Amino acid sequence: MPNPILLGVNVDHVATVRQARGVRYPDPVHAALQAEMAGADGITMHLREDRRHIQDDDVERFAACTQTKLNFEMAATEEMLAIALRIKPLDVCVVPEKREELTTEGGLNVANNLNALTELCVEFNNNDIRTSLFIDPDKTQIDATAKAGAPFIELHTGAYAEAKTVSEQQHELQKIQQASTYAASLGLIVNAGHGLTRFNVAPIAAIPEVHELNIGHSLIADALFMGLQPAIKQLRQLMLEARQMPALQ
Ligand code: PXP
Q1: Class of the 6-242 domain?
Q2: Sign of torsion, CA 29 32 36 37?
Q3: Catalytic pick from 36, 73, 172, 212?
Q4: Is 84 helix (H, G, I), strand (E, B) or coil?
Q5: What is the average pLDDT across 66-91?
Q6: Torsion 30-129-156-240 (CA) sign
Q7: From the CA of 116, how far away is ligand 1's center (Å)?
Q8: Is the dihedral of CA 158, 161, 165, 170 positive or negative?
Q9: Is any atom of ligand 1 closer than 6 Å to the C-beta of 196?
Q10: Taking a C-beta distance cutoff of 8 angstroms, is the pair 218, 198 a contact?
């Protein structure tokens, strides 16, 4: 029987629509609860330093009523560490953050920030919060993540998703496959995400070591035309088929 594959739904994009008007709707917490009902295995919220989409109150409200798990995405700052320790999500995913970027553009340079990230992992490990470091599929960064003591990596699939040609995409896929095998051989649990859609998810979901995919933008875009729950169910079905798992519902 293949390993199960989990779907984490990122609801930041719902908050982006709300913030565009500065009103109370659409509510990312409402989206998160709907996502759970559609079979999402967890919810990701990225509280950015500039609060451009998710707000502190969204994270607090969801942490208080989640039925699955919160994956709190954050930059490695004192402010975010304090929030994470207060709300105690099951998972944190540490990402690099730049004010001018449209979305998380690249992976963390763990090798160059080993001491600070090791301290962060120790803090989270001591508080039963599972740390994932968001990195490019690169051996040096995987080795550094293992050294830092994070139990999880999340592999950045952006280069794969944005590849312009089939051969470029194959090349990026191979990097993710090899990185997954290598990371798993070191005992790391492998998540992946960024830029995944119902059109490109299957080859990533088929990688046997991949434990969870975190998907946001394409799901919320599909939700505009098919509704959030059907969009999630369809994506999840594609992931299970790629993993050759029977549909769960
Ligand atoms: N994983 C991480 C660490 C991210 O920063 C993002 C983007 O917020 C995602 C997954 C989801 O990417 P997308 O919105 O392109 O599906």
Answers
A1: alpha beta
A2: positive
A3: 73
A4: helix
A5: 97
A6: negative
A7: 23
A8: positive
A9: yes
A10: yes
Let me know if 241 is a catalytic residue. no
Quick check: CB of 135 below 6 Å from ligand 1? no
How far apart CA 132 and CA 225 sit, in angstroms, is: 32
**Token pair belonging to 162:** 């944005």
Atom index in ligand 1 nearest the CA of residue 104 equals 5
Give tens-digit pLDDT for 134-188.
999 999 999 999 999 999 999 999 999 999 999 999 999 999 999 999 999 999 9
Residue found by looking up tokens 């859609």 in the block = 197
> Which pTM was predicted?
0.96
Work out whether the CA dihedral 40, 52, 91, 238 comes out positive or negative: positive
DSSP state of 240: H
- Where do the domains of the chain lie? 6-242
What is the bridge-based pairing of β-strands 70-74 and 42-46?
parallel
